[in-house]
User: Fold this.
Amino acid sequence: MSLLERLNSDIKQAMKNKEKDKLSVIRMVKSSIQNEAIKTGNELSEDEELTVLSREVKQRKDSLHEFDKAGRQDLVEKIRTELQYVELYMPKQLSEEEVSEIVKQAISETGASSKAEMGKVMAVIMPKVKGKAEGSLVNKLVQQHLS
Assistant:
């Protein structure tokens, strides 16, 4: 089942169950995917859909951080709920240990030995962990292993 089919199915289910918050979030995600498809001019691949989902998650995490900093607990709870719904469509996230292993493999593959070669290592890692790990975590681990 494609992501759009799954979103449509979940929209129907949320409507039946009268889950307004969930329905709103699913519609936003579906809209983002459709807008991206219109922008590119063709149907999105799974990778491109994953990129859109990752962007949605990142936007909500950024909002969460800003609202928390501003002391807006009402909005913090709303964004947390939205984030939970969006994350249902993301692939299972890798643990820090799993990402660390991928980093070690990439370093040995590229033969990198200094932080100056970090870009080379990141270019190998990111396609492997796309949507499964945050870039900031990968960046931190690569820096640790190259220092």
The domain at 3-87 is CATH 1.10.1510.10 (Hypothetical Protein Yqey; Chain: A; domain1). The mean pLDDT is 89. The chain has two domains: 3-87, 96-146.
